[in-house]
User: Fold AB hydrolase-1 domain-containing protein from Salix dunnii.
Amino acid sequence: MDVLYHDHGYGGGIFEALNGKVYGNGTETLVLAHGYGADQSVWHYLVPYLACYFKVVVFDLVFSANVSPDLYNPKKYSSFNGYASDLVNLLDELNVNKTIFVGHSMSAMIGCIASTKRPELFKHLILLGGSPRYLDAKGYDGGFTRSEINALFKQMDRNYTSWVQAFAPAAVGMNNTPATTEFKNSLRRMKPKIALSVAKAVFLSDWRSILPKVVVPCTIIQSKRDPIVPNSVAYYMKRKLNGHARIRILDNRGHFPQLTAYNLLLKVLRRFLVIN
Assistant:
């Protein structure tokens, strides 16, 4: 890699700092970006298959326990702009453009924001369980009331371990022990202060205004019963993406189809990525 981003605090380059890995050697680059509380291992069921067709890039977001906690700057990452900047820098360092980007949960909006800054880096955005706003607002069902979010923050602050015990199975949203264990272990490894800081950046965010500025074609993929993101949000996003989006509702429960319904998700991805 030729470009090192010393000025961003990543001494050996951002790809290395965020534990970037590339699988496969296809001509097209497919980027997989995980969501809150997870890390790149959340894609482990999908990578072996996708790497047969693409150059697959995975990495950890800066809050992950796999990344040096010294790199987590609460001010920079109080907004998704900080993460979008990291994504742009990582793709620049890899010297790729026209990528297919799959962003799960918070990374769906991170991809949208990055695409408004540098549209040439992206050919297709796949928004998996994404939401521009988790809080309810007038005429908008985000899935959470302000008092519910405040209670969540209070529980995290008071007793992080017991919050993880309750939140992980609720987010997975179905009786799937391996998936729940994976997410629980990932959350447990996070520093509680960082986990709370990131939770505030996610659950208090409002990126609805960015959607009409996205010019890259989008595919919205959503579980039919997602405890974090109501179906209405997926249709809201489709409307606001100015005709640049199509939508697919998976016949699945929960917020992590890449862990609980990976065969179904792969089937949908195959169709949208035109894999024969």
